[in-house]
Amino acid sequence: MAIVYLNGDYVEASQARVSVDDRGFLFADGIYEVTPAYGGRFFLMDRHIDRMLRGLCALRIDADTSGLTEVHERLLVENGLTSEPISIVYIQITRGVAPRTHAFPATPVPPTVYAYAKAFHRPDPARWGAGFEAITVPDRRWARVDVKTIALLPNVLAQQAAVDAGVDDALFVRDGIALEGAHNNFFAVFGETLVTHPLTNVVLPGITRGLVIELARESGIAVEVRPIQVEDLVRADEAFFTGTTTEVRPTVRLDGRDIGDGRVGPVTRRLFDALLERVERHASGG
Description:
The chain has two domains: 3-119, Aminotransferase class 4, branched-chain amino acid transferase, N-terminal domain (D-amino Acid Aminotransferase, Chain A, domain 1); 125-283, Alpha-Beta Barrel (D-amino Acid Aminotransferase, Chain A, domain 2), CATH 3.20.10.10. The protein has seven helices and 16 strands. The protein has helices at residues 23-27, 45-59, 68-78, 125-130, 153-164, 207-218, 266-283; strands spanning 3-6, 9-12, 30-38, 41-42, 86-94, 112-119, 132-138, 169-174, 177-181, 185-190, 193-196, 222-225, 228-229, 238-243, 247-254, 257-258. A hairpin with a 2-residue loop joins strand 10 and strand 11 (193-196). The model has no long low-confidence stretch (mean pLDDT 97).
């Protein structure tokens, strides 16, 4: 049985219980984070924890996060994942259990902290090499997308639209600007220049997004951080999504039209290879 963490205890998932009065259940009043481990070693953990702390601060949730690293590590041990090539830990913190009122509880309550670990498998190399498809969807999310909250209904509906269309990803578009995916960030390549939307309130500050920009600059690839007009994507040579469980995923068709020549491009491959090299070096302790 899977072992999860809930409010200080490690219990079987089937025995974990959260109150129906939890504000996460009633209001989506909480934040979450997903951190990858390669070969049992957590990757960019400090960046994930920092983003979680920023989210807690934005929502004014007072939670003790001093032991979160130990929670992550123990979940790998408890679930036999320390030698797994890739695994992830999902952690969610809500404001806690209180009578249902829209305002914060008048008397502070302990936050609810829940986490689990599981193995993750990237796509087969042949599948990755064929590329993936996406559709554009209108962005109907709230105005603080930069906070990684559990209020993900618009993302759910967008991803379901992709499923209904028989494609892999959904690309949010607002006021004619291509922003990011339903659960990942977005990049386009024009010529040999990599372009992605600036970090504002309308995109999530993705950890993998930041790493890919670093890898691009280290590799001598020109990077522009600017808005991308959605109509300009018809002249893009390449496109891809990034994320913790997306890594680097090439998009070869958007809204039924080929991106570039409809094949995975050299910049995308180069950055994916650079990411793989970085995580493999990390997993080996380098």
